[in-house]
Amino acid sequence: MSVEVYPVKIIGHIRTDFTSKFGVPRQSGIVDALEARIEFEKEFAQPEAFRGLEGFSHLWIIWQFSEAVRSNWSATVRPPRLGGNTRVGVFATRSPFRPNAIGLSSVKIKKIEPDTPKGPVVYVSGADLMDGTPILDIKPYLAYADSHPDAVDGFAGQVNYQKVRVVFPVKLLEQIPEEKREGLLGVLEENPAPHYQNDPERVYGFGFAGKEIKFRMQDGVLTVVRVE
After folding, report:
1. pTM, whole model, 2 decimals?
2. Which of 19, 35, 88, 170 has the fewest C-beta atoms lying within 10 Å of its C-beta?
3. How far is CA 93 from each of CA 85, 112, 156, 162, 203, rounded to the nearest angstrom?
4. What per-residue string of b and e applies to 63-100 under the rule 16 or more CB within 10 Å gives b?
5. Per-residue pLDDT tens digits for 16-40
6. CB 67 within 8 A of CB 46
7. How far apart are CA 70 and CA 83, in angstroms?
């Protein structure tokens, strides 16, 4: 039996402060201070296509894991939530290494600019996507249907996960644009370092807002050592 294939169009791309997938929050909405914008391809940048969207507070973004597209897939993966050492079924996770490299994110709508040189632009907060990620679709979040207060989080809810303390020397923090600092601190509090590694001497780094952020992790404290 052959595998059916359906054509999918990229309707736009998101612009964020992350130049690589390392450092990007592991879920949407957990760092609300992170702001991004969605720009649309000319074919879809029609103001009438966005009519009524301004009445919603949140949005679903359906997107492509553009840095994780591969021809094969694995039935089991090692989610960071379990320290990266325990395997579970891929369909029990949000891992990018799936049969179809498709992601789903829930974000807050900050504003909509309907008339720009690039057409309508949607500004959002809480996105967990790297800069330039292809967008396949957007849909309004419906609280009456999409919110489930009695939902069970499976293994993700069984792990006692806490934010880490961040030490960011003032002289280094001043190198970050003021309007970007809250978002960056929120990202660091979530500890971007792989949870299966425990090397206090190792320096990790990721690109953010045109800078390279270098940090170490030791005894639950994340210390920024350089901004390049």
Report:
1. 0.90
2. 170
3. 14, 32, 9, 20, 28
4. bbbbeeeeeeeeeebbbbbbeeeeebebeebbbbbbee
5. 999 998 999 989 999 999 999 999 9
6. no
7. 24
